[in-house]
Amino acid sequence: MLEKIDIHLTDHCNLNCKGCTHFSPLSEEFYLDYETFKKDIDRMAQLSNGRIKFIFLLGGEPLLHHNITQFFPHTRFLFPKTRIVVITNGILLNNQDENFWQSCKDNKIELWVSDYTLQVDYKKFEAKAKEYSVFLGYTSTAKSADNKKLWTKYKLDIKGEQYYANSFKNCTVKNCVTLKKGKLYTCPTIAHIEHFNKFFNQNLEVSEFDYIDIYKIQDYDALCAAMVKPVPFCRYCKPLEFEQCYWEPSKKDINEWI
Ligand code: SF4
Ligand code: SF4
């Protein structure tokens, strides 16, 4: 059974963290269109018969999507037992109207706020969530002794000279299964590397062996088995060479990722 799938509602973000593993600071504006989403989520429901524990709607920053509530009812209809979660940095949460909160309530959507300790009125949206009985939780960000946000930067090897099976073995983001345009990837790195390639004029190659085409795979068991195996793209990753640093806004410098 798939533990979870990530779906980007936007690729860009309003926070732009250094070395973002989803490459959002490098992305142009991208909003997922509903028809693409519906086709793919219908197929995932058909394959899995609802057996997915979590569906994460994220980005980038998903609240940048002007029609975010459009995605909620059909996902809930197809996956009645799945925990459906919007992961947000919280910056726009106090801008949401009553329709947003009502839709979260009606469709049992959870809100998980990444805790970046920003200049945001956290108490205000906590009260709103309580008013509508919407689950709101935080994903924590580590802090230094002097209360600065700590950040982990993962490193890419742009030459692709790592041994792919070792990279996979040591990887901490594998199985963050990502659904994008009819394809399932074992991690967001492969799914969104196009932004890194385009911005820095690189060519970290994604081949047909690096993803599953959800319209060609025969059944759910084959799909789940494929998602726990290393893929050739893992040769571009150096998971043991991650770097601990303070959180900063991205300067869009390639050294943030390599
Ligand atoms: S908030 Fe999340 S998606 Fe946005 S730039 Fe930071 S790490 Fe990336
Ligand atoms: S490409 Fe492989 S090693 Fe790199 S993040 Fe994805 S699963 Fe992990």
Topology (SSEs and partners):
Blueprint: E1 2-8, H1 34-48, E2 52-58, H2 72-78, E3 83-88, H3 98-106, E4 109-114, H4 122-131, E5 136-139, E6 150-156, H5 164-170, E7 178-180, E8 183-185, H6 188-200, E9 212-213, H7 220-226, E10 237-246
Parallel strand pairs: 1-2, 1-7, 2-3, 3-4, 4-5
Antiparallel strand pairs: 6-10, 7-8, 8-9
The structure holds iron/sulfur cluster (2 copies).
Please tag this protein with its features:
binds iron/sulfur cluster, 8-stranded mixed beta sheet, 10 strands, globular, TIM Barrel
> What composes the largest sheet?
8 strands, mixed
Order of helices and strands: EHEHEHEHEEHEEHEHE
Low-confidence stretches: none
Query: How big is the Rg?
Result: 18 Å
In CATH, the homologous superfamily goes by the name: Aldolase class I
- SS content category: alpha/beta
Got a strand count?
10
The first-to-last residue Cα distance is 33 Å
How much strand? 15-25%
> What is the CATH top level name?
Alpha Beta
| Gross geometry | globular
- Write down the oligomeric state: single chain
Spatial ordering of strands, largest sheet = 5-4-3-2-1-7-8-9
Report the bound ligands by name, code or SMILES: iron/sulfur cluster
Mean pLDDT: 94
Helix content: 25-40%
Work out the count of structural domains: 1
